[in-house]
Amino acid sequence: MIRVRFEAASGAVQEVEAQPGARLLEVAQNAGQPLEGTCEGQMACSTCHVIVSAADFERLPPASEAEEDMLDLAMGAVRTSRLACQILLTDALNGLTVRMPSAHRDMQGR
């Protein structure tokens, strides 16, 4: 199992375990995190934007050019921002910590 830590802008922390090969977006949604992911992984939106901890960012494979373009549209994006739909959990990412941007609101207003 892969451990993932979600940190809310409020400071609340939720730690979950996921199967290797799961997409971070699915894990977040199953854990009740406020990520909409309305494009269903087709990178036509930026509603699954997360901020990866600086310590974990270098463990991720580089973002594609298409992902970089989508991140340009994300509210609250920073240097370590990524789209959760593009993060495939592997053993190398065990212990990954991400947080939701403080400006984040999904389509349901959470």
Low-confidence stretches: 105-110
Strand order of the largest sheet: 2-1-5-3-4
Integer-rounded radius of gyration: 12 Å
Question: Count of DSSP helices?
Answer: 3
Q: Helicity level, as a percent range?
A: 10-25%
How much β-strand is present in the residues?
15-25%
Euclidean distance between termini CA atoms: 28 Å
Number of strands: 5
Question: From the helix content, strand content and strand pairing, which structural class follows?
Answer: alpha+beta
Mean pLDDT reading: 87
Reading the helices and strands in chain order gives: EEHEHHEE
Shape: globular
Largest sheet: 5 strands, mixed
Explain what the structure shows.
- The chain is of the alpha+beta class and 110 residues long.
- It contains three helices and five strands.
- It has helices at 24-30, 54-57, 65-71; strands at 2-7, 13-18, 49-52, 81-83, 96-99.
- A five-stranded mixed sheet has the order 2-1-5-3-4.
- Strand 1 and strand 2 (13-18) form a beta hairpin.
List the helices and strands and how they pair.
Layout: E1 2-7, E2 13-18, H1 24-30, E3 49-52, H2 54-57, H3 65-71, E4 81-83, E5 96-99
Parallel strand pairs: 1-5
Antiparallel strand pairs: 1-2, 3-4, 3-5
Short description:
With 110 residues, the protein is α+β, with helices and mostly antiparallel strands. 16% of the residues lie in helices and 21% in strands.
Key terms for this structure?
alpha+beta, 110 residues, 5 strands, 5-stranded mixed sheet, disordered C terminus
